[in-house]
From TrEMBL:
Name of the featured protein: DUF1659 domain-containing protein
Classification lineage: Bacteria, Bacillati, Bacillota, Negativicutes, Veillonellales
InterPro entries assigned: DUF1659
One Pfam family from the record: DUF1659
Domain DUF1659 as annotated: residue spans: 3-70
Length: 71
């Protein structure tokens, strides 16, 4: 029987800003070693707190989980 084992969890925040030509751009801020099984509400609160420390606008929150599948 195959098993799935979590290798890493990451939280990625996508923020929007305007460049020198007033063109809208996106950048990503990634945090590694996210606790497996973190509640979505907790992630939303943390992302909001981090976003509140900067002038750029938070546009997207992405949780990424990488797994290894073994027999």
């Amino acid at each position: 029987m195959a098993e799935r084992n979590v290798v890493s969890n990451k939280l990625k925040l996508v923020v929007t800003y305007k460049d020198a030509n007033n063109k809208e751009k996106n950048r990503q801020i990634t945090f590694a070693k996210l606790k497996a099984g973190a509640e979505p509400q907790s992630l939303l609160q943390v992302a909001g707190a981090i976003a509140g420390l900067q002038a750029d606008t938070l546009t997207k929150i992405v949780e990424t989980t990488e797994n290894v599948i073994e027999a």
